[in-house]
């Protein structure tokens, strides 16, 4: 189920307990009457290898920062998600915990990450797995770092602006390659990048900006979902996630090249569908 690669280490985690309901449009599985949902988990708390439990059962062990799992089919329902420092659960005190309602047909990613002020928290994001036109791809950027608002630029031009933690922004773009970077909102101060990114046709690519600006370990990880081509009998398929690695250990502003993460297209500024959820 998982694809794991260690990334940067940094801040330690504290405790946080909240409740959240995940809502999403029905997928083909729900339309067929299956009481299932697709759920992935992203670990974006630096410096803490964890075990993840769902309703008291171990879901993931030795889960390293910067990793996003492949989607897993789960029964719809309520899940008590608990994140423990590796080896400390299930009887210890969780670093983060949250009750999540997963409806039938949902495709969601649960992200363990830092808030803007550095507090560990859990946020559930709905993944858009709707079709895209031929020659297109979908890009979603999620700000889950202990950092101020950012702009995401393609070819030096802002594409997503004033993105705050824990918000996301989405665009449907032409498949292709273009240099991209992340800057502090309203400035030219680079936070991550630049790097050439490439989005494959018919995919939905989710980029997580995570880590801590104060600890100088900002980085990115991606989740790629395939099967979004606009064609008869197309079925949305699960994807994979991989952690990004910095270009230089001396440069906390470095972008990470990631498996499954390949470029913004030139038409990124032409056709744009914006969705901000938190």
TrEMBL record:
Q: What PROSITE patterns does this protein's entry cite?
A: PROKAR_LIPOPROTEIN, TAT
Point out the signal peptide segment. 1-28
**Source organism superkingdom:** Bacteria
Give the matching InterPro entries. Answer: DUF4397, TAT_signal
DUF4397 domain spans which residues? 37-153
Per the record's keyword annotation, is Metal-binding included, yes or no?
Answer: no
Q: Where are the transmembrane segments?
A: 252-270
Keyword terms = Membrane, Signal, Transmembrane, Transmembrane helix
Q: What is this protein called?
A: DUF4397 domain-containing protein
